[in-house]
Amino acid sequence: MENSLQLIRQNLKEGDNSEIARIFTEHGDYCIRTLIRNTNCSKQDAEDILMESVLNFRDKVVSGKVTYLTSIRQYIYSTCYNMWLKEYQKRKRREIVGVDLIKFYVEEYSETMDTSEYFDNKKAMIRITKKAMATLKTKCRRVLSLFYVERYSMKEVAKMMNFANDNVAKTIKSRCFNTLIAEVKRIQEKEKIRL
Amino acid sequence: MPLTDEEIELINEFSQGLASEKLTKKFMSKYNSNKEFRDEAKLRLSVIAIMRAEEHNNRISEMRAIYKSTKVRKSARRYYWIAASLLLVICSILLIKSINRPHEKLFNAYYKPYPGEVIERGHSQKLISKVLQDYIKGDYEAVVFELSSRSNLSDSLYFYLANSYLNLGKYSKAKSSFKQIGKGSTYHISSQWYIALIYLHENQLDSCEIVLKKYSDTPSVYQHKMRSLLTDLNQH
Q1: Chain A environment of B8 (Cβ under 8 Å)
Q2: Per-residue pLDDT of chain A (195 residues; tens, 9 = 90+)
Q3: Is residue B99 domain-resident?
Q4: Which residue of B has its CA nearest to A126?
């Protein structure tokens, strides 16, 4: 299993998605069926959770956080079940409305942000940020994505982007992020939207 | 008043989850006391959250696309299995049918196409030699084309016409042509043998048996075959 995980990791790193397709083919139906049976959730919910779970599996394998598994099926199913449990508990606490993006956006920072104020402008903020992102150069978008989204270290970003060293990467990242924030502020100002 | 580089760095470190306990306390204190700092922090955290949310959604869409493609492949595979199973069932039915058709087996065992050999003199010599040439070449269509529109054919021409029909798989036409050959003809017994075989092919075993019984005692080149076929029929 260790060897096969290494192989999966290597393939995933090279952008080969056939491993993901294989996981869906071999374990997808089992996970959906078992999750529905054990939690009584809808098929749509089970499929959504499966997507999240497989994505989580991919990230963990690629990042090297998972190096040994006795059973991929059990790992994916357990993640599905835990995700469902987490979601269920959250639903019990409060009703989450809106599109997936907003749901995620609110969930991610709900504990650090003033939610009620935040909620009013969320749609506008999403639109503005996307608009501002579109004005950035491809290199800038890639650096920001690698650092903030994929959470690579500055050293890894420097290596991946062929920068001289991590200090260069850090400078470029800061410059790009400040440009992005400045653009967001400019659009906010223009459209008279406050966060 | 704009934020200092140090304050911006503090927000960045906090947003990446890299801030130590001391820095987090510092962040929270500034967040609660300084409005400008709070607004800047909110903005920066929101932008990072939106970037992450956007990327997450894209990756989920990618997962969904892969999942859907596996579903399509699965259903295609299911159709292949159904098609293969149907094919297997059809083949089995055909096999069972062929096993249950002993008369065809007997026909194939006994039927040998008549070889082209005739010497006949008279007014139709030219025609018979052409028919024979075509027959020997295996051009049975040409024989049928040449003879089927003619009437009052000689026994030998009827015989070759009937054999051509037989070789072409036109059994009922072959049978009626064989029946045109009179009792006195040298081809009579041969034609009766082929009529018996046609009955056999058509699974009219009683008619086949009647013909065979009638001629199996008459000395001919087919006598042995007729008796043997009779025995086989009785065994079946």
Answers
A1: 178
A2: 555 788 888 888 887 888 888 889 889 999 999 999 998 888 888 998 999 999 989 888 888 888 888 888 999 999 999 988 887 776 655 444 434 555 555 555 554 455 555 555 677 888 888 899 999 999 999 999 888 888 888 899 999 999 999 899 989 998 999 899 999 999 988 887 665
A3: no
A4: B50
Most A-contacting residue of B35, B46, B68 (CB-CB within 10 A), to test interface: B46
What range does the domain containing B74 cover?
5-81
Out of B43, B59, B64, name the one closest to residue A184 (CB): B43
- Looking at the structure, tell me whether residues B70 and B152 fall in a common domain: no
Q: Could you give the ipTM of this predicted complex?
A: 0.72
Q: Provide long-range contacts, Cβ within 8 A and 24+ apart, for A78-82.
A: A79/A53, A80/A31, A80/A35, A80/A46, A80/A49, A80/A50, A80/A53, A81/A35, A81/A38, A81/A39
What's the number of domains chain B is made of? 2
B228 in the same domain as B163:
yes
- B42 contacts in chain A (CB < 8 Å): 113-114, 118, 195
**B181 and B137 within one domain:** yes
Chain A nearest CA to B8, separation (Å): 10
Cα B175 → chain centroid = 33
Domain assignment of residue B220, yes or no: yes
Q: What is the pTM of this model?
A: 0.53
Residues B162 and B74 occupy one common structural domain: no
Q: Rounded to whole angstroms, how far apart are CA atoms B10 and B7?
A: 5
**Record: contact A104-B43, CB cut-off 8 A:** no
In a domain, B91, yes or no: no
Do both B48 and B153 map to the same domain?
no
Determine, for residues A113 and B70 on separate chains, whether the beta-carbon distance falls below 8 Å: no
Nearest in space to A142 (alpha carbons), one of B159, B51, B194, B22:
B51
Distance from CA of B101 to the nearest CA of A (A): 46
The Cα of B86 is separated from the nearest Cα of chain A by a number of Å equal to: 25
Residue B17 lies in a domain: yes
A115-191 under CATH 1.10.10, yes or no: yes
Alpha-carbon gap, residue B156 to B221, rounded angstroms: 17
B46 and B115: one domain?
Answer: no
Shortest Cα–Cα distance, B81 to chain A (Å): 16
